[in-house]
Amino acid sequence: MSTEKKVSTDGILLMLCNSVSEVLTSATGSGISYSPMVQKINKTCLKPDIGCFVLFDGGFSGLVVANFSAAAALEIYQTYLLNMGIPRTELATQHTSDEVGNVMGELMNQIVGDFTCRVGQELLTSISQNQPKMLAINKEVMISVNTNLDRPQARRVTFKTAQNNIFYLEFAVDKTEFIQLHEFEKQDDINPDKIIDEAEAKRKKSIAPPVSEAEALDNDLLEKLGF
Q1: Fewer CB in a 10 Å sphere around the end CB: N or C, the chain?
Q2: 10 Å Cβ neighbour count for 171?
Q3: How do beta strands 50-58 and 135-136 pair?
Q4: CA torsion sign, 84 to 89 to 94 to 99?
């Protein structure tokens, strides 16, 4: 009896969906779910109100497009920052705010990082990607993969937030299939909380006030004196 196991396009898409759901659930502290029904589509598009695209290359090539309604983007942005202890009075209230775009782009980058880890763990291959950047748009923009995709397959998945706001993930990749020839030990399980914590530590470090050379010397002296 053959022991071959296969992972096709939809298996890779499932990894991506789990990354989106688990990272956003961990970041916001509220449930993010996706439909068990996936839609086959012929083209990928950026759509209003705010979205981004990510190009992948390496073990396989492809494109991910995330499209958020204004309500979904604001809910995710606000619950993420509220979950971090930021007062509601300090939060943006318009999806076109630069802060909303920056935070949503940061979350998308964490999702991509989680997905990359899953690909390495489950398929034992490596992919690289560009830096996601959110764009607030008011009309549809066609996005195509300018790579050597012989037989591209495209899918769309519907996601729902805790407040029942909808957003969509579109995925285009060359028709591919990974075949497991023999058993192997998977790497350690992925921990979305660790990815969130690392990203948050980096975020806090980037906005921390610079320490002058004199202050650094004083701090070193106080440490040596036991203070």
Answers
A1: N
A2: 24
A3: antiparallel
A4: negative
CB 154 within 8 A of CB 41: yes
Backbone dihedral region for residue 85 (phi beyond 0: left; psi -120 to 50: alpha; all else: beta): left
The pLDDT tens digits of the residues spanning 119-161 come to 999 999 999 999 898 999 998 888 776 555 677 899 999 999 9
CB 118 within 8 A of CB 7: no
What mean pLDDT, rounded, does the chain reach? 85
Residue with tokens 């070193």: 220
d(Cα 116, Cα 113) in Å, to the nearest integer?
A: 5
CA–CA distance, 53 with 37 (Å, rounded to integer) = 22
- Per-residue pLDDT of 2-16, as tens digits, reads 556 889 999 999 999
Host H or E run for residue 58: strand 50-58
Dihedral pair phi/psi, residue 214, rounded to 5°: -65, -40
Residue 185 has which token pair?
């030990």
Task: Walk me through the domains of the chain, giving residue ranges and CATH numbers.
Answer: 5-224 (3.40.1550.10)
Residue 224: both structure tokens together: 């040596």
Q: What pTM was computed for the model?
A: 0.79
List the structure tokens of 72.
């979904």
Q: Are 50 and 135 in contact, with CB atoms under 8 Å apart?
A: yes
**Which amino acid is present at 219?**
N
Determine the Cα–Cα distance for residues 86 and 91; give it in Å rounded to an integer.
8
